[in-house]
């Protein structure tokens, strides 16, 4: 079995053998280890963005009821840890309010998830301490603060997700509107081309380098007028068909 010295347990932590036997070479998840009259609280430092490893902090409750923290300030180190959680969450909330790009929101989202999980596990570890020692008022106070931080981290994660989804929906609406405008422009150009199609066809037919009958030459303007009339007829039927199709689609959508 690996010893706790492999985990670099602080030398001032003269914990009892029963506690040592419950530890391995790695700190593991956040929890409270119970011994005979002693407790060892294992919590994690504030997660760093895109870093899966967690830095463990140890808090030892001795037989006399006093706590010893990493800097030998007792539970003051745990209170400072909660302050660091709160500062990180508040900083992300300010960024969400002023963010201009999806990359910024994604960066917050990739960090808010680990923050929410870590703070939730921290609350669970403090709950274990209170389950063993119901009368520890200091831990009770810190547990309540940790619950507030857990709620703030969950809200941060949800806000980041909703903001990203809102931006995605807005971009989709903009793309749909842009596509609709392009379709309308293309439709008008097609109508214009259809209007002049008969005239272009007649012009090409009678503009060939062939000998035309003499009676055709005085009918130039009549031919032009006929082409315009034919284009108008095509335009009328195509427009009517398009309007009926659009009205049917709108009625189906309603």
Main-sheet strand order equals 1-2-3-4
Derived structural class: alpha+beta
- Given as residue ranges, the uncertain stretches (5+ residues, pLDDT < 50) are 1-6
- How many helix segments? 5
Order of helices and strands: HEEEEHHHH
Mean pLDDT across all amino acids: 79
How far apart are the first and last residues' alpha carbons, in Å?
71 Å
Largest sheet: 4 strands, antiparallel
Descriptive notes:
- The chain is an alpha+beta fold and 254 residues long.
- It has two domains: 4-167, no CATH class; 179-253.
- It contains five helices and four strands; from the N terminus they run αββββαααα.
- The protein has helices at residues 17-21, 76-98, 102-132, 137-206, 220-253; strands at 31-34, 39-44, 56-61, 67-68.
- Strands 1-2-3-4 form a four-stranded antiparallel beta sheet, with helices on one face.
- The protein is rod-shaped, with a radius of gyration of 38 Å.
- It starts with 16 loop residues before the first helix and ends with a helix.
Summarize it.
By secondary structure, this protein is of the alpha+beta class.
């Amino acid at each position: 079995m690996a010893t706790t010295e492999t985990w670099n347990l602080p030398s001032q932590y003269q914990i009892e053998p029963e506690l040592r036997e419950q530890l391995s070479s790695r700190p593991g998840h956040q929890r409270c280890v119970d011994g005979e009259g002693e407790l060892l609280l294992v919590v994690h430092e504030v997660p760093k963005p895109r870093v899966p490893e967690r830095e463990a902090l140890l808090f030892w409750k001795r037989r006399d009821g006093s706590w010893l923290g990493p800097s030998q300030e007792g539970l003051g180190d745990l209170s400072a840890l909660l302050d660091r959680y709160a500062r990180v969450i508040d900083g992300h909330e300010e960024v969400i309010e002023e963010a201009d790009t999806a990359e910024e929101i994604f960066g917050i989202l990739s960090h808010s998830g680990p923050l929410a999980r870590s703070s939730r596990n921290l609350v669970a570890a403090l709950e274990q301490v209170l389950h063993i020692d119901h009368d520890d008022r200091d831990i009770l106070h810190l547990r309540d603060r940790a619950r507030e931080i857990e709620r703030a981290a969950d809200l941060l994660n949800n806000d980041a997700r909703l903001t990203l989804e809102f931006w995605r929906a807005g971009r989709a609406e903009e793309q749909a509107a842009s596509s609709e405008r392009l379709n309308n422009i293309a439709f008008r150009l097609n109508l214009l081309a259809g209007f002049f199609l008969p005239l272009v066809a007649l012009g090409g037919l009678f503009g060939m380098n062939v000998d035309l009958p003499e009676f055709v030459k005085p009918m130039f303007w009549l031919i032009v007028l006929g082409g315009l009339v034919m284009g108008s007829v095509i335009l009328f039927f195509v427009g009517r068909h398009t309007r009926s199709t659009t009205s049917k689609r709108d009625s189906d959508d309603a």
